[in-house]
Automatic annotation (TrEMBL):
The keyword Nucleotide-binding does not apply. One of its GO terms (molecular function) is DNA binding. Residues 4-58 form the HTH lacI-type domain. SUPFAM superfamilies: lambda repressor-like DNA-binding domains (SSF47413), Periplasmic binding protein-like I (SSF53822). Pfam families: LacI, Peripla_BP_3. This is LacI family DNA-binding transcriptional regulator.
Amino acid sequence: MSRPTLADVAARAGVAISTASRALHRPGRIRAETAARVRAAADELGYVPSAAARQLHRSSAGAVALVVPDLTNPFFMALVRGSTRLLRAHDVVQVVADVEEEPESEEQTLAALAGRVDGMLLAASRLDAATLSTWSRRVPLVAVNHDAGDPEVPTVTIGTQGVEEAVEHLAGLGHRHLAYASGPATSWADARRRTAVVETCARLGVRLTDLGHHPPRRDAGAAAADAVLRSGATAVLTFNDLQAFGVLDRLASRGVQVPEDVSVIGHDDIFGADLTSPALTTVTVPAEELGARAAARLLGAVGLATAAPSAPPAATGPASTGPDRLATHLTVRGSTAPV
């Protein structure tokens, strides 16, 4: 028989996994009768925390893992800064794992880290909704910019206001044929952005060409740029800024002027977006606040803080539109112009 897990203990005691974790490791944070029920369930099942977990909980510091799809992407580095800043303030260590855009690697990482950290932050998870829901019942986690549609999975996301503003901006400049370069087919965020582009174009009576899925990397921009030129679109919106950087590179190499011949809009407003030639018009995302807000929710859930602390204000961009969704907005620079 397999060794009983924390999820088994939680199920036997009739509590959430996060409650079971607090009961076994920080019982002072929950009601005494609940802690006793969880301990009894653990004893009945023969549950024994891993050696790493026992060592962790003998220390005053806790630890959480942040799992990202691509640590070379500056967007995720900003998210790491936000979560690290808040976690450090609560004496919590953060471990960062890069799964290189592979759902299989993501699951392997979750399995390896379960029981070794107090909880996990999953940034832009590429897991499907059912798999994400299953993992949320095995280990305390918060999904960042991925909504599994399960109320039991704590989620912090960003809005699509900036994407809608991007389409409106291009339409206002006289563009009547736009193109959209999608991100990974497994990206929940890309599906939402693509829907926002489609619906806003339909509302404004603007033609749209879907260029298909492209990796969220700079080197993928070349194929996207070639597809834009074949489509005849006068402007392109990309899934992220790295793709947009690649589009700018390719268009320049082909003698296509930006924004005179083609306007380009990215997404995320990562470091360097204002240093391209021309400077990139892009959707600004409060990535550091996103990381801090997600870390705050996880701390509150696993009992590493007496209550979920308030996330610090965003360094740039608008305030949050709600407790679980942050607003985005368009930042106009030199890569867009009238037709």
